[in-house]
Amino acid sequence: MSDHLFPDATLPALSAELLDIPNQARLTAATPSQHPPRILMLYGSLRERSYSRLLTFEAARLLEAMGAEVRIFDPSGLPLPDDAPDTHPKVAELRQLATWSEGMVWCSPERHGAMTGIMKTQIDWIPLSNGSVRPTQGKTLAVMQVSGGSQSFNAVNQMRVLGRWMRMLTIPNQSSVAKAFAEFSEEGRMKPSSYYDRVVDVVEELLKFTLLTRDLGPYLVNRYSERKESAAELAKRVEFSKATGCGSAASDTEGGRSVASCEMPEVASDAPPKSSRCCG
Predict the structure, then answer these.
(1) 19 pLDDT higher than 60
(2) pTM (predicted TM-score)
(3) Which of 51, 9, 8, 23 is nearest to 188 (CA)?
(4) For domain 38-220, which architecture applies?
(5) Domain spans in the chain, listed from the N-terminal domain onward
(6) What is the band of 276 on the pLDDT scale with cuts at 50, 70, 90?
(7) How large is the angle between the packed helices 194-213 and 51-65, nearest 10 degrees?
């Protein structure tokens, strides 16, 4: 008797040649990275005494004590999305740090029941893709928030949604500090409390997940649907080359034709253009 629930094993909707069946061997890095985990930290307030910044600093101290290499981005001077070119120095700095990092911490105050615009602006400036590179795909993420009143989870929940959208591996644990004004000393250090203990939990978990996945990120988030889409696009290019006689760039030059004459024409579509950010 078969152990399968469905004796009919056919999968007519599947492109079997594109299926990549997971296996244990692929989940072990042949040469694990030896450098310290690289963590980028973002906070969502510009106030002189910003509790999201203080909480970020406290988590950064813990990360460094555990052996991580930490960078903290200062959002002061970062323009609104689409209000400046991608070459703006603050945008370039943020994007460079996002590419450098292997994991991130996002920490925002909760304002009007949501993360702050300052926090969202930073995330919006990080592109989903930059050419063939996806700066955040497969990287780990921890989310934290501070509140002026009772404990809430609106901001961390929103950031979790954004982390999924950015194709990040958001860890299960999180930190939400209520009445943050009472949790820090005049010197800006976090007082001993269950809130502090939770921050330690988050940092430990982030480093564990980063060490576990940083060499495997591209494999973990490799998708059948995108392999199928890429194969379809390749097939279109091959068929176009056959139909037009266009070959390699070298043969085009030797034949006296410009490379541009062999480019596939634009195809009209009702679908909106692809973009690395929301089209607004």
Answers:
(1) yes
(2) 0.79
(3) 51
(4) 3-Layer(aba) Sandwich (3.40)
(5) 38-220, 224-257
(6) very low
(7) 60
